[in-house]
Design brief:
The chain is mostly beta strands. The chain has helices at residues 11-24, 80-84, 96-99, 393-410, and strands at 30-31, 34-35, 45-47, 55-56, 58-63, 102-104, 107-108, 125-127, 132-136, 146-154, 159-166, 171-184, 189-196, 205-212, 219-225, 239-243, 254-260, 265-269, 272-277, 287-293, 308-322, 330-331, 337-342, 347-351, 361-364, 375-379, 385-386. The chain is globular and about 65 Å long. Residues 1-23 form the signal peptide.
Length: 411
Amino acid sequence: MHWPPLSPISPLVISILVPSCIASASQDEKSSPQHLPNGDSVCDCFLSNGTQPSYFSNHMFFDFRNLTKDAGVPALITNETLATIAPPTSEYFSDDEWTSVWQLQGWSNSEGKGKGLSGAAAVLMVNSPSNVYIQKNSDSDAASDTYMTLRTQRLPKFQTAAAFQTKTSDYQFVSLRMLARTTGGPGAVTAMFTYRDGTATSDVQEADFEVLTRGPRERVQLTNQPSFDSNGQVNPNATRNVTLPDDTIWSQWAVYRLDWTSQSSVWYVDGQQLANITFQVPQEASGINFNAWSDGGSWSGNMTVYDQANLQIQWIEMIYNTSAPTTPTRRRGPSRLWSRDAGPRGELLRRRDSSSRTCKVVCSIDDVAEAGVATMLWNSTATRMAGADAPNGMAWAWALLVGSLVWLVAV
């Protein structure tokens, strides 16, 4: 028995199948969701909720909330060359748990000596590993001991910036989340996005979740790039500037979520949908990126000298598929190919693809009590169906039941 290709579920199929499915499930067959104390080691795949419910093979969770041994704000490096080659700011960013997935960025937007700056930049921007660090949470009502900070600051001679990205660019559809906020002065951009480079701007494939600190604190920018047409005009089909829900402002902690599927890019904050863009959805395998930057151009704006802005993140979580098979680093049982790597200062949970791609145990990271811990939705090897009494039970039940039917059809 093989699981069919992992892809979004058609809303039309859902609307046709749900009534009969719900009617056929008796109360005796329902049970509460089973939180998995050891992460998701029993899960074969993951199902997201929302506008485009989708199946994913892999799960990762990076937790920056309890890294006190690594906390410390590094000094700014004011030499542009030294900034690009700066070492990691703590052991956390040198450990395998981090380096096996992410790369800190050290480069500038200079086209070379005497050749000016790339794009429409007005200020030299230098990405430095020294601007990604673990910081003590000094909030009066702090819900964590620490968080990760991406710092950008305008210096007299250049803009120092921060960026990191996945080591590989084989992520092909993802539900990406972070608990984050943006702080600081106007003229910067903080972002979470997928990215695939192209030989020309028109070839770039990118889905963006951006905060522009020059703009209103209650608004964010959501885009399937490129956002400009061949005449340099903003394409309204590609981008939205939207208001955050429930009077939220981007300097407050909130869960930012981007669901990239083959059919659309959908953006959420604290579980509420902000936009669904089906125009020029990225299709090719891509990398995952986070950054805080400014180049003095018309998009970011120009920061006042010595002003600073920060993207602060408590955790990052994603469920995703890849365009290439992966190799497990640890086996848990004779047929499940999984790894759970728990570092001394943080945690990485990764589900590895198996060659058979079977999916008998379906889990979710939505509507859970604890970030990073999956909830079992159903187990096709058991006689009882789990999850019908989960939070938002009946609203979520259709996804569980339709998934069961999809699995039965595939048998």
